Amino acid sequence: MAKAKKKRRKSTTRSKTKRRGRKNRIDYQLNIVGLIFALLAVLAIFRWGYLGNLIANVFRVFVGDTDLIAETVFGMVGLYLLVLGHWPNDLPLRRLFGMIVVYLSTLLLNTEIFFAYLNIHSQFTHVLWSLLRADFRRGRVTESVAGGMTGGYLYSITFFLLSNWGTVLIAILGVIIGILMFTMIPFHDIIQYLQRVTFACRSFILAAGQQLHGLRGRFFDEPDEDESDPNLSSDEPDLAETTQDAFSVSGGPVDKSQRSVDVVIHDAGLVATTKKALTTSTATLATPAAAQESKETEDGLPRPHDGFDVHFSPTGAAITDQKVTPTGNDLVDEPSSKTVSAPFLSPTDPVAMTTRADQGTSTVPHEDYSNYQLPTSELLSVIPPTDQSSEVSLIQKNRATLEQTFKSFGVDVKVIHADLGPTVTKYEVKPGLGVKVNKIVNLADDLALALAAKDIRIEAPIPGKPYVGIEVPNRTVATVSFREVIEKQPMHPGKILEVPLGKSVTGDIVTADLTKMPHLLIAGSTGSGKSVMINVIITSILMHARPNEVKLMLIDPKMVELSVYNDIPHLLLPVVTNPKKAANALNKAVSEMEDRYQRFEAAGVRDIGEYNAKVRENNSDKNNAMMDEMPFMIVVIDELADLMMAAGNEVETSIVRLAQKARAAGVHLIIATQRPSVDVITGLIKANIPSRIAFAVSSGIDSRTILDMNGAEKLLGRGDMMFSPVGLSKPVRIQGAYISGRDVEKIIDFVKGQQTAEYDEDLIAHVNDVSQDNDQQEHDEHFREAVSYVVQEKKASTSMIQRRFRIGYNRAALIIEDMEKVGVVGPSEGSKGRQVLWGTENYQQYFDPSQPTSDQDGNYLS
Fold first, then answer.
1. Taking Cα atoms as reference points, which of 150, 67, 142, 165 lies closest to residue 111?
2. Cα angle vertex 467, ends 461, 470, to 5°?
3. Is 221 in a helix, a strand, or coil?
4. How many Cβ atoms from other residues are within 10 Å of residue 833's Cβ?
5. C-alpha 760: how far from chain center
6. pLDDT in tens, 347-393
7. Helices (H) then strands (E): counts for the chain
8. What average pLDDT does the segment 8-37 reach?
9. Picking from 85-89, 380-384, 714-718, 750-754, which range would have the lowest pLDDT averaged per residue?
C-alpha cells in the first residue's frame, strides 16, 4: 500500500510538469501570433510594397475605406498578444457588441453616401467587387470602395426594404444604439442631461436678453450731448419722449385730435431704434442736398430708415431739425441752427450735391426692402437622379479597350484613373517614357471606333497633371438639376453675384463670380442650351440678391426669351426688344458708368465696393445724412447677332466701352449669341470679354472664334459646355444645370409678390426716343464740328470739309450727305458750293436743346 501511494505521488508531479510546459508553449505561440498580427498591420497601414497593398486590399474587401481603423485595431490586438501572451478578455460582451454595431452602421452609411453620389440603384455588390478586383490586379489602393463587401451586402438589404432615406435613418439609429450599449448609460439619464443643458441655455439667453434690454434703454433714454439745447429748461422732456407721444408703435390707436405719425414696426425690438431713426432722419433738412437725401413725401414728412413701414396721417405736420416743446396736445417748434451732412459729400461739389434721382438710373431705391424675402430652393422642382449603374460597369471594359488599342498602335500608355461625369467619362492616361503626346491625340478617331463612341475629346495634357485626358460620351446622360446645384453651392457670404453653372466631369459644382469675370460671353448653336443657361444665371441672381442690391437691364431682340421677367422689381426698365431701342439702352448704360465714376471721384474711392463701404460707415453715424448703397447693374443681351445687324456700330461701341472700364463701377455684361462668327463677335469684343462659355457649335472655326481653340465642335449639346473663365489656361468641361420654364415662373411669381416693379421713367423716355439719338449716333465723329464750321462759314463743300478736318474724300462726302439729310445744307448744284440752310438757333436746337443759344460771335463749339 505504501508503495502504491508513493507511485501515485510521482505521477501527480509528472502531470503538473506536463501542464506547465503545455501552458508555456501556448503563451509562446500567442506571442508569435501577436507579432505576426502587428507586422501585417504595419505593412497594411503604411502600404509598403506589393505585399502591403495586398494586405490592405484584403482588409478593404471586408471593411472598405475604413480599413485604416480595422488595421489599427488588428495591430493593437497583436501588440496585446505579444506583450501579455493571452487574448483580451477584459472587455464586457455588451460593450464589444456596441462597438460592432457602431462600426457596421458606419459601413452602411458610408456605402449609402457612395452610391447616392454615383446615382447607382442596383447591383451594389457587383460594382464594389469590380472595383476591388481592379485594385487587386494593379496591386495598388486607388479606388474608393465605400464600406466594402460588408457594407455592400447590408446596403443591398436596407435599400430593397427601406430605400435611401430609410437606410440613412437605420444607420444613424444603429450608431446611437451602439454608443448607448458601449457607454452603458440608461436612456432616461441622457434625456435628463439634455433637459438640464436646455434649461441652462435658456436661462443664459434670458439673462443676456435682459442685460441687453437694460443697456439699450439707458443708451436711448439719455439725450446726446451734441443735440442738447442750453436754452431749454431741465424739466422739458427730450425729443425721444415727445416723438413717442406723437406716434403710436406697433399699430396702436391714435388720437385723431393730435398731429400724429403712425409707424408700424415689424419687430418689437426696434422700438428704441425708431426713436433714434426719426431723430436722425429729421436732422438733415437744413441744406438742399440733405433734404433730398431724407426722401420727403408730398406731405413734407421725411421717411424713417429702412426696417419698418411708415403710414402718415392726413393731418401730420412736417418734422424739421428743431427742438420740440409740448403745449397741450400740439407741438410748438423752436428752430435750431444745426445742420448735418455726409462726411464725404462736399457742399460745393456739383456732383456730390446732385440728387439721387439725377445721379443715375440704378441708384434710386423707392421701396423698403428690409422685409424682402429671398426665394428658396423649395420653390424648385425635384428632378429624380439618373441611374448610371450601366456606365460604372462599362468603365473597366473601356479601360481594357483603351490600353489594348494603344498597344496595337505601338503606343505605351497606362490608364490610371477614370471619372464618371454626368455627360462624359474622363479617363486619365499616363504615357510611357518617350511617348509623344501627339501620338495619342492623332489616335482620336481610332479610339472612338474601338469604343463605339459618337466622338471623343482628348485633353493633352490635363492642367496640373502628367496625364492625358480622354473624354468618352456616356450612353446614359444624367440631368443636372438647378435645385441640386443651388443647394450644394459653396456659400460665400456677401458674394451675391456668384452663380452656379453646373457640374464638372468629376461631379464638383462649378460656380462663376460675375464680379471677377467681370463680363461673360455665351455662344453656341441653336438648341445647345444658351437660353437655359441665361435663365439659370438670372434666376440665381434673383435668389441671392434683393432689388436694392442688383438692377437688371434685359435686352431680348427675339422677344420671347426674356419677356417673362417683365415687372420684376429688379428691372430698371421693361425688357427691351427693339434693336434701335437696345442701342439707346446700352448708350444709357455707358452714361450710368461714367456718372458712377464721377461719384467715385467725388467720394475719393476707386470702385463700388469701397463706395458702399464708405456709405455704410457714413450711415453708422447717426449724425450724418442717410445715404443709399450703389447697386450692381447687370446688362443681359440674349441675341447679339440681331443687334449687330440692326445697329452694329452703336452696339459695338457701347459694348466695348462697358467691357473696358465698367467693372469697377459695378456694371457687368452677359452677352449670348447663336452665330459665333467674326462679324458678330468682333475682335474688340473678344479682347475685352475674357470669360466665355461655349456650347456645341458646328465647326472648329466657330470654336476658335469663341475659345481661341478647337473643342467646342465635339460637345454633345443639351447643356454640355466648355467654360473658360479669366485666369484659366484651358477651358473646363461642364454639364450645365437645367431649370424648367415652370420653375422660372415660380421664382418670378414669388419675387413679384414681394415687391412691385418700379421703372425709371427718365430711362424709359431716353430709350424710347429713337429718332434723334440714333440720328446723331449714326453720324461721323466730326459731324458736329463740321456743322458748326459750315454754319460759321456760310458755305459748304466736300473739299472744304476734307481740307479743314484732314480726312479722306469719301469720308468728307458722307459728312456732306448727312448734312443734307438733316437739313443743314441744300442739294448739290454742280461745281458750286452747297447752300447753308441752318443758322445759330438751328444748330443749338439740334445739338444742345437744353442750353441757351450762342452769342452773336458764333461760338458754337463746346
1. 150
2. 75
3. helix
4. 18
5. 27
6. 334 334 333 334 444 444 445 677 888 999 899 998 888 888 888 88
7. 28, 17
8. 64
9. 85-89
- Type and span of the H or E element at 448: helix 444-451
- Report in angstroms the alpha-carbon separations of 231 from 236, 274, 284: 11, 26, 21
Q: Please give the pLDDT value at position 92.
A: 80
Q: How far is CA 517 from CA 200, 402, 543, 544, 669, in A?
A: 49, 38, 20, 18, 10
Which pLDDT score is estimated for 241? 40
How far apart CA 636 and CA 658 sit, in angstroms, is 12
Task: Give me the residues paired with residue 473 across strands.
Answer: 424
Beta-sheet pairing, 667-673 with 520-523: parallel
Give the residue carrying C-alpha cell 459644382.
509
Q: Which three cell numbers stand for residue 234?
A: 431741465
Instruction: Name the one residue in this structure whose C-alpha cell is 505521477.
Output: 11
Give pLDDT tens digits for 94-117: 888 888 999 999 999 999 998 888
Residue 705 CA to residue 710 CA, distance in Å, equals: 9
311 Rama sector, left if φ>0, alpha if ψ -120 to 50, beta otherwise: beta
- The three-state DSSP-derived secondary structure of 225-242 is HHHCCCCCCCCCCCHHHH
Contact residues for 669 (Cβ-Cβ < 8 A; gap 6+): 519, 520, 635, 637, 655, 658, 659, 662, 689
- Return d(Cα 777, Cα 791) in angstroms, integer: 20
User: Could you identify the residue written with the cell 440665381?
Assistant: 540
Residues whose CB falls within 8 Å of the CB of residue 765, separated by 6 or more in sequence, listed in order: none
Q: What are the strands, taking DSSP E only, across 703-800?
A: 720-724, 732-736
User: 232-241: long-range contacts at Cβ-Cβ below 8 A with a sequence spacing of 24 or more?
Assistant: 232/323, 232/325, 236/325, 237/326, 239/279, 239/323, 239/324, 240/275, 240/276, 240/279
- Around Cβ 847, how many Cβ atoms within 10 Å? 15
Q: Which residue ranges are tagged as binding site?
A: 524-531
User: What domains can you pick out in the chain, each with its CATH number?
Assistant: 22-187 (no CATH), 240-333 (no CATH), 389-473 (3.30.980.40), 493-600+633-764 (3.40.50.300), 779-847 (1.10.10.10)
Residue 654: CA count within 13 A, CB half-sphere: 29
Around Cβ 810, how many Cβ atoms within 10 Å?
10
Q: Are 258 and 329 in contact (CB under 8 A)?
A: yes
The number of beta carbons lying within 10 Å of the beta carbon of residue 786 is 23
Task: Write the DSSP symbol of residue 834.
Answer: B
User: Residue written as cell 437725401?
Assistant: 293
d(CA 555, CA 585): 9
Q: The C-alpha cell of 254 is what?
A: 391714435
CA distances from 222 to 212, 326, 485, 672 (A): 16, 19, 51, 59
CA 348-354-357 angle, 5° bins: 170
pLDDT single digits (tens) 735-748? 999 999 999 999 99
How is the beta sheet containing 424-431 ordered, strand by strand?
413-420, 424-431, 468-473, 457-459
Cα separation, 25 vs 31, in Å, equals: 10
Q: How confident is the model at residue 171 (pLDDT cuts 50, 70, 90)?
A: very high
The beta strands (E) that lie in 359-423 are given as: 413-420
Positions at the binding site for ATP: 524-531
Q: Which residue is associated with the grid cell 406697433?
A: 250
Q: How far apart are CA 300 and CA 333, in angstroms?
A: 15
Mean residue pLDDT across the chain? 77
Helix, strand, coil content of the chain in percent (nearest 5): 50, 15, 35
Q: From CA 204, how far away is CA 197, in angstroms rounded?
A: 11
- Band (751; pLDDT cuts 50, 70, 90): very high
What's the CA gap between 452 and 441, in Å, rounded? 17
